[in-house]
Amino acid sequence: KNQVEQSPQSLIILEGKNCTLQCNYTVSPFSNLRWYKQDTGRGPVSLTIMTFSENTKSNGRYTATLDADTKQSSLHITASQLSDSASYICVVSPNQGGKLIFGQGTELSVKP
Amino acid sequence: GAVVSQHPSWVICKSGTSVKIECRSLDFQATTMFWYRQFPKQSLMLMATSNEGSKATYEQGVEKDKFLINHASLTLSTLTVTSAHPEDSSFYICSASFPGTDTDTQYFGPGTRLTVL
Description:
The complex is a heterodimer of chains A (112) and B (117).
Chain A: E1 4-7, E2 10-14, E3 19-25, E4 32-38, E5 45-51, E6 56-59, E7 62-67, E8 72-77, E9 86-93, E10 101-102, E11 106-111
Parallel strand pairs in A: 2-11
Antiparallel strand pairs in A: 1-3, 3-8, 4-5, 4-9, 6-7, 7-8, 9-10, 9-11
Chain B: E1 4-7, E2 10-13, E3 19-25, E4 32-38, E5 45-51, E6 57-58, E7 67-73, E8 76-81, E9 90-97, E10 107-108, E11 112-116
Parallel strand pairs in B: 2-11
Antiparallel strand pairs in B: 1-3, 3-8, 4-5, 4-9, 5-6, 7-8, 9-10, 9-11
């Protein structure tokens, strides 16, 4: 069964600190993996997208990694800001044009 | 990036009434639009996929007569929740993909919060 599991479920960190969110998937075949940021009461916004051959992708303070062999991905946030407080969702596409498989998200709270 | 809007952003209605939610692609023509539902602390759940000018494809367990989807143009899709009940209260999000890209490249709208009293 195609599944995407994220950990931790929630995370609280202090402003300025770094953090890493995890995503494990059992999706096959695999086309690409995306990380989205979803602010409360808003739609998801894409942060990064990686295909099978890509190991890392950065977008400002966000750096995503992908290990297609172990089917794991991580999202690293450096020098966190209060505005980083949101839900971060890992989304895997099983094949081009197929349905997206969503993780349940990690709720990040950055405190001053 | 591509912009998708939704209207209204929130709506409160009485049980038994119908509510229409609009999803528009503002700067591109959307080949396909998707409707998702999201309950608190849960991820998005695909309800249906619609292509312009054709009937929507509903996911298993989603009542097509209750959630009416119309995709009359390449820039507008509507979701009508008919005879809404409190259990229909949720966050409804649409997304759109456009010609020349795969449907796994979706641009999400800001969502509509529906509360049924």
